[in-house]
Design goal:
The structure holds 2 protein chains of 2 kinds.
Chain A (H helix, E strand, L loop, with lengths): L2 H12 L2 H4 L4 H4 L9 E3 L6 E6 L2 E9 L1 H6 L1 H17 L4 E11 L3 H21 L3 E8 L8 E11 L14 E6 L9 H4 L17 H15 L4 E6 L4 H17 L4 E5 L12 H6 L5 E6 L4 H10 L4 E8 L3 E6 L2 E6 H4 L20 E2 L2 H8 L10 E3 L7 E6 L4 E9 L8 H18 L3 E10 L3 H22 L3 E7 L3 E2 L2 E2 L3 E11 L1
Parallel strand pairs in A: 4-5, 9-12, 18-19
Antiparallel strand pairs in A: 1-2, 2-3, 3-6, 4-6, 5-14, 7-10, 7-11, 8-10, 9-11, 12-13, 15-16, 16-17, 17-22, 18-22, 20-21
Helix pairs in contact in A: 5-6, 5-8, 6-8, 14-15
Chain B lengths: L10 E6 L6 H10 L3 E6 L10 E4 L8 E3 L6 E3 L11 H9 L4 E4 L1 H8 L6 E3 L7 E9 L14 E8 L3 E3 L2 H9 L3 E5 L11 E5 L5 E4 L9 H12 L1
Parallel strand pairs in B: 1-2, 1-3, 3-6, 6-13
Antiparallel strand pairs in B: 4-5, 7-10, 8-9, 8-11, 11-12, 12-13
The chains are: A alpha+beta, B alpha/beta.
Chain lengths: 507, 231
């Protein structure tokens, strides 16, 4: 492949909606992201809120809608895996997850529902993070696009927080975890298109056991001062992680940092993978560590102790370039060549009401679901899914307080009025924390919409209203996810925003 | 949490397999009651000086066994764990009659390795199940604590492979020897024969149960029984 073609493929990958937020970033800027408790807002692996007494909470929600529809069990499982990596990448130990599920009303949707629950159950239970809540709704609007949103929370000592950046030229890039294979190539692009064609090879395989080893190793690494950054390999895998750590590092340090990756050193599980295959594979359970060179052996030993394969695959440079080196070739690129400022404009058409029935799962369906999730592991769950209510209470003995997690979607209201829908969701979360005498700290949100052609009007209305209320009530948004293209042919799903708010309760 | 100052601090070794996800819960549990609890990594093969050996819950090795020929795996909880070096520690402890406790996955491993009778198969529903269940102390009780016999506790279970099965004659023996120390009461979450939730060995120093006392408010009763027996 010529230099030009490599660059072109990388540009395409980084400009997909899923990675570039091309259609939405100008609106997302409206949201308030700063506040008294905010340590880290959007733009990192997860948001971070100050819990006091030297501790912090990391939180994030993500969608895994497209993969879950194509391969319900694996798709949902990798969703759980991905969001948990976002948490422990920052050095935090995950202490709970929530699952928000939306399915259609046809026969196929029943199968998807079963598969999704099995996937979440197999993965979450094995890794030992309790599912403390969530909700399930059925609506014809989701017949061809199920929604699987997973929120996760973690606790970390403030001094142990790890960011996804490089800091010093000469530091090691260490690859740890699963080998790179062909699974999930094109996953980010898939999530940026309508779900008309089913591309099963773009869904990754999930491995909860491997993830658990990574989790423990990363939590141990967070206690050391051997590393300067960590980044998981999610969408657009190795490419995204090896460039992101340099970009964030450049911003943070002001240095002309770059990264150099030796492609031959990447552990591979498939034969004859080309350069772009290697860089774009979305094989799960892989992490990139920016390690201090002098601590290389200690870091590799720690991974070995956890039976994990780790390799130094490159280094941080001071040439400001992104360099790929394979056996006989060298590609040198500028970061702004790969990350072009993509911006897509859509007409803000008024949302066309669908009026289909939006039904909450009944008691039996709900109970049958949470019975399959371990919600008591970790011994922190004070109020789990066993008692009704759209909130959970998780014990934080570290700071002698309780964490209240409240959540709500628009509950179908956005179909009639996106503005009223998001207002409804916000106040359901907000009032629950207030009613329990909690102090709201911040929000994470997942905005699930259809094709931008039909949904951009509703999206903008949602963001504008959310932004206004968050400012009014002084609740910042610290992380989140936008999922567009939840559409099939000409049908877009109803706007489905999901909000998760956290608050602290004195004991 | 109320402790008598005279109480002996027990040395509690907690075996940690890769993916023993109740490792920290179990450690915290024993520490909360003032005991000296520490991890024993699965690669360890020497028995150190301990008063109690615990195999915690979780998914040791992801519950998997890899087939050498194909590289594919099958789910068989405990199967991979029993060929770990640390099983030598368990054997030594069993020989020396040191008390051993297996919780959930720990119970599965003890059964798999033959330290406890019977088998633990996939739940009758074929699904993982987690909730609080009522359990009654029966037989010769938990670590011989006669005060507990007949008491009912609400304890969480969280497992996919907790259906206890055993041959007819062996079951008769278990009953005769009072080896069934815990039974599900009212609701059986996995289809275990005779509502069995926990059994002990013939000598009654090795105990295995599916429910998680470390997750229960009633955990203190279990700790007290251990303290009495060991101390």
């Amino acid at each position: 492949m010529s230099d030009k073609n490599v660059l072109k493929t990388l540009q395409e990958a980084m400009s997909s909606e899923h990675t570039s937020y091309a259609s939405t970033k100008k609106y997302l800027k409206l949201l308030p992201t700063k506040g008294k408790y905010v340590i880290q807002g959007p733009g990192e692996n997860a948001g971070i809120l100050d819990l006091g007494k030297g501790y912090a909470l990391t939180l994030r929600i993500e969608s895994h809608n497209h993969p879950s529809f194509i391969n319900p069990s694996q798709g949902a499982a990798t969703g759980v895996g991905g969001i948990l990596r976002d948490i422990f990448t920052m050095g935090a130990r995950p202490i709970g997850t929530l699952d928000f599920l939306r399915f259609g009303t046809d026969t196929n949707s029943k199968k998807v529902f079963e598969g999704v629950v099995k996937g979440i159950s197999d993965y979450g239970n094995c890794i030992g993070v309790p599912t403390v809540g969530g909700d399930i709704y059925f609506d014809k609007t989701y017949n061809y696009n199920c929604l699987v949103n997973v929120a996760a929370f973690g606790i970390v000592k403030k001094k142990n927080i790890i960011y996804g950046n490089a800091e010093n030229p000469g530091s090691d890039l260490i690859y740890v975890g699963a080998k790179t294979g062909r699974d999930g190539i094109g996953g980010a692009q898939m999530a940026s298109e309508n779900l008309d064609k089913l591309n099963i090879s773009a869904v990754q395989d999930a491995d909860a056991f491997l993830e658990k080893l990574l989790l423990e190793a990363c939590c141990e690494l967070a206690e050391t001062d051997w590393i300067e950054g960590m980044q998981d390999m999610g969408a657009a895998g190795l490419l995204c992680s090896t460039t992101e750590i340099a970009m964030r590092g450049r911003e943070k340090t002001g240095l002309n940092l770059g990264t150099k990756v030796y492609l031959d050193k990447i552990p591979k599980k498939s034969e004859r993978m080309g350069i772009t295959d290697l860089l774009l594979s979305e094989s799960q359970e892989r992490m990139l560590i920016v390690g201090k060179k002098k601590n290389r052996q200690e870091i590799l030993n720690l991974f070995e102790q956890w039976d994990l394969e780790a390799h130094v695959i490159g280094e941080v440079t001071n040439d400001g370039k992104y360099t790929l080196i394979s056996e006989n070739k060298k590609f040198v690129m500028d970061f702004d060549e790969i990350f072009q400022d993509v911006d897509k404009d859509w007409e803000k058409i008024k949302w066309k009401t669908q009026k289909s029935k939006h039904k909450k799962a009944n008691k039996k369906q709900t109970e049958n679901t949470w019975h399959q999730y371990d919600w008591t592991v970790g011994t922190r769950t004070i109020k789990g899914p066993d008692k009704s209510g759209h909130h959970a209470v998780v014990e934080l003995p570290e700071i002698k307080k309780n964490l209240i997690i409240s959540w709500s979607s628009d509950e179908g209201v956005s179909d009639l009025s996106p503005s009223r829908g998001i207002t409804h969701a916000f106040y359901k979360c907000f009032k629950r924390i207030k009613d329990m005498n909690g102090i709201p700290l911040g929000l994470t949100n997942c905005l699930n919409f259809g094709h931008p052609k039909a949904s951009m009007g509703a999206f903008v209305e949602t963001i504008e209203t959310l932004s206004k209320i968050c400012r009014k009530e002084n609740v910042p948004i610290v992380s989140g996810n936008v999922s567009l293209y939840n559409a099939h042919k000409n049908h877009s799903i109803k706007p489905t925003p999901i909000l998760v708010m956290v608050g602290l309760q004195d004991l | 949490m109320i402790r008598k100052t005279s109480k002996r601090k027990l040395k509690v070794g907690i075996i940690r397999f890769p993916c023993s996800n109740c490792d920290f819960d179990t450690l915290k549990f024993f520490k909360k009651f003032g005991h000296d609890a520490f991890f024993i990594w699965y690669k360890e093969s020497k028995l150190s000086k301990i008063d109690l050996l615990v195999l915690p819950g979780g998914f040791a090795f992801g519950d998997r066994v890899y087939k050498k020929a194909t590289g594919k795996y099958v789910i068989d909880p405990g199967e991979q764990a029993i060929s770990s070096p640390v099983m030598n520690v368990v054997s030594k402890a069993a020989e020396k009659k040191i008390p051993i406790l297996g919780i959930c996955n720990g119970f599965q491993i003890l059964v798999k390795a033959g330290f406890l009778p019977g088998k633990l198969l996939q739940n009758k529903s074929k699904k993982f199940f987690c909730d609080f269940v009522s359990c009654k102390i029966t037989g010769d009780s938990f670590f011989h604590d006669k005060n507990l016999i007949g008491k009912i506790f609400r304890i969480p279970v969280a497992h996919g492979y907790g259906r206890y099965v055993i041959g007819k004659t062996e079951l008769t023996d278990l009953k005769k020897n009072n080896q069934i120390f815990l039974k599900y009461q009212g609701f059986n979450p996995n289809g275990s024969i005779g509502n069995i939730a926990g059994v002990t060995n013939e000598y009654k120093n090795i105990y295995g149960l599916m429910p998680h006392p470390e997750r229960s408010k009633d955990g203190k009763y279990f700790i007290k029984a251990i303290e009495k027996y060991v101390g």
